[in-house]
Structures are given as structure tokens and as C-alpha cells.
Amino acid sequence: MLKKCLFLAGGYGTRFLPATKAMPKEMLPILDKPLIQYGVEEAVQAGLHEIGFVTGRGKRAIEDHFDSNFELENRIKGTSREEALQTLEELIDTCTIAYTRQGEILGTGHAVLCGRLLMGHEPFGVVLADDLCLNEGLGVLAQLVEVYRKYECCVVAVEQVAVELTNKYGIIDGVEQEDGTYLVNELVEKPEPENAPSRLGIVGRYILVPKIFDELERTEPGYGGEIQLTDALNALARTDRIVACAFDGIRFDCGSIEGFVEATNYCLQKRQGHQP
Predict the structure, then answer these.
(1) Which of 31, 116, 253, 276 has a 20 to 30 Å separation from 132 between CA atoms?
(2) 173-193: per-residue pLDDT in tens?
(3) Which segments of the chain does DSSP mark as H helices, in order?
(4) Is there a contact between 192 and 171 (Cβ–Cβ < 8 Å)?
């Protein structure tokens, strides 16, 4: 039974400097809610209530956000502002939250490996909050959970990316199944367009099985001199089944300024009752 979710939040957020010099990029707000909260809400909707964060230096604001602030709560009690915190307080009450640190920023695979003690010997979800995924119905992580329950293996979320952008994504080579998922043959980290096996790019949502930790321990540094999760999954695909899910919904790359602005405008139009 899936109940755990790991959030990778150790990166520096250099594309948003100087704004992220002292503030975690995961705390950047889309309207009045930080990116990381959108991700936790998505995990809870998927039934994953045991939340683990892999953070780093300068990320204390994430812990403070998912904690009580009695002075603030007392100050706004009985005012119109009290309702603004109610959803967050209900979310906190719903979850069990634990934290660990990534001492060095050595790649996505290394970050997942840092969460081994938090996730234990159970399958678990993984969220990169930079990727804001929105859906009117079933969230992206919940869709991956449904695929996992059918196949009981690692599941990665994918979407079609522009051919000139394949060198910014992990790309899969897979065979489409009757249910619209893909049985993965190979995963390649950030290939140049002429070497990309497809245009199906992996985005920041995964369901992983405990075997991934042993594979990550064997994985040598790859693209950028970092331990890449894609490389470990590719090695695992040689002996185990891995399935890719082309999800329903819209995804914004909020790790870039352009994607962040696009997400903000989209959410504002939705709040104002317009169709983006």
C-alpha cells in the first residue's frame, strides 16, 4: 500500500537569484500559496500522507511553513485573515512530516538516496516541486498511483516535449500499451535531439520501489558529474519492468522564470473565473 512521498528540495534555485539567495525556491508563491504546498496537497490527494523532505542549507522556511505558528495564529484569530491559514492547518494535521538533509547537491539520484531512511522498504512517490502539475480531476501523482497498483513497478510521469528541448529532460524509449501507458525499454538523461529515442520527457513525478536505492548506490556520476535518477532507472529497466504514464493535466516548469510567470498567470485567470 502506497502511503509515503519524498520531496526533493535541496537545490539552490540559481535560476531565480538573487530572490533565492535566502529564500528556498520551493517557497516561491504561485498567487498566495508556495510551490511546495501545491505538491504536498497533490500527494495527500493521492493518499500519500507520510511526507519526507530532502532539504539543504537555507531551507528552514520549508519546515517553518509546515509547522504551527502560535503567535501568528493568535494575532489573526477572529479576523478575516484566519481563514487564509485554515487550509494549510488542515493539511498539516493530515500529514506526518519528516526531514533529512542533502549535504552536497550531487544530483536527483543522490537526493533520492538521501531519503532512504525516511522511505524505508516500501514503494513511495517522489515529487519535484519545481514542476507544478494541475488538474481539474485526478491529480498527476494520483494517476501514477493507479498505474502502480496495476503494474506494481516503478512508474514515471512523461509528456511530449519539443524536439529541441530533449536535452533538458530524461527521455524514454517505450512501447505504448493498450491503456495508454508505455513499457519502458530505455531511459536517457538529456540527450541531444539527434540522439533522443523519442520526445517523451520525464517530469517531476515518480512512483519508485525500494530496489531503486540499491541501484542508486551502484550508479556512477553521469550527466553534469551528478548521480542521475534516470541512469539508475535505466539500469533497473534491464531486469525489472518500468512503466511511463502520459498523464492528464497541465504542467509548468516553475524552475524557470518563464514557466513561473506562465503558472502565475494561469492560476490568476482560473481564480478570476476565466478560461486560460
Answers:
(1) 116
(2) 999 988 889 999 999 889 999
(3) 35-45, 60-65, 70-76, 82-94, 108-114, 116-119, 140-151, 211-218, 229-237, 257-271
(4) no
The alpha carbon torsion through 178, 184, 187, 193 (nearest 10 deg) reads -40
Average pLDDT for the chain: 92
The answer, yes or no, to whether the previous bond of 29 is cis (omega within 30 of 0) is: no
Which amino acid does the sequence have at 191?
A: P
pLDDT for res 77 = 84
Specify the residue for cell string 524557470.
256
CB 191 within 8 A of CB 166: yes
Q: How far apart are CA 94 and CA 88, in angstroms?
A: 10
Residue 110, amino acid: H
CA dist list (Å): 201 to 119, 120, 162: 26, 28, 9
Distances (CA, A) of 247 to 2, 24, 96, 101, 244: 19, 28, 27, 30, 9
Nearest 5°: phi and psi at 86?
-60, -45
CB 114 within 8 A of CB 101: yes
Phi, psi angles (nearest 5°) of residue 234: -65, -40
Task: Compute the C-alpha angle 135/137/138, nearest 5°.
Answer: 90
C-alpha cell read off for 119 = 522511505
Q: Is 223 helix (H, G, I), strand (E, B) or coil?
A: helix
* Count of H-run helices and E-run strands, the chain: 10, 13
**Residues paired with residue 206 on neighbouring β-strands, in sequence order:** 126, 156
For the chain, the C-alpha Rg in angstroms (whole number) is 18
Whether a cis peptide bond, with omega within 30° of 0, leads into 18 is yes
